[in-house]
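User: I'm curious whether this sequence folds into something compact or stays loose and floppy. Could you predict its structure so I can see for myself?
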Amino acid sequence: MLHSLLFFFGLVLLVFLSRVDLTVNLIIFGSFLSASIFLNLPFLSVVRKIRYFIFALLIIYSLSTPGEILFYYSFISVTYEGFYLGVNNSLRIINTFLTIMLLMKLIPRKFFINFIIKICYPLKYFGLSIDNLTSRIFLTFDYLDFYKNYSFKFSNFIEVINSHLTNKSPIVKVKKLSKVIPSTTDYYWIVGFFSSFILIQFI
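Assistant: Here's the prediction. I'll summarize afterward.
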C-alpha cells in the first residue's frame, strides 16, 4: 500500500511538473536537494550526467526566443523570456530525473515489474502472452542491473555487447517467476491517476 501511494504521488508529480512556473520549480528543486542530503542520494551525480543537455536547453531557449533583450553582441542576442524559459525547463528536466531517482530509491524493483505487467494485462484479451511478457520484463531488469555496475567505454561498446551475447554463462538471478494478476485495487489506482492527470490539465 505504501509503495503504491508513493508511486501514485510520484506519477502525479511528474505530470504536475509540466504545468508549473519557475518559482514552483525552484521550490521543488530545493525540496529534492534537501531530501537527497537527508537520504544520501547521488544528487550531484544525476545533475552531472545531464549537464550538457541542460546547457543546450539554456542556449537554445535564450538565443531563439523573441522578447526583451538582456544581452546583444553582433548577431547574438539573449532575451529575458528566452532565459526564463531556459532556466524553467532546465529545472523541470532536473526535477523529473530526481523524481525518478527518488522513486527508484524508495520503491523496490519488483514493484515496478509488477506494475508494468498489470498495466499490460488487459492486452491478454488481444492475444498477448502474459507469461512471455513477465519473463522478458524480469530478464530486462536483470540485465539492466548487471550492466549498471559494468564498466565499459563507448569505443568498445559493440565488442562488449557481442561478447555477452555469445557468453554461455547466464547472469539471470531470478530462477522462478511469480504469476502477476491485477486486483480490483490496482485498477482503482489507475483510474485515480488518470483522473488526477485530467484534473491537472484544467488547473
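Summary: Residues 80-106 form the longest helix (27 residues). The chain has a mean pLDDT of 77.
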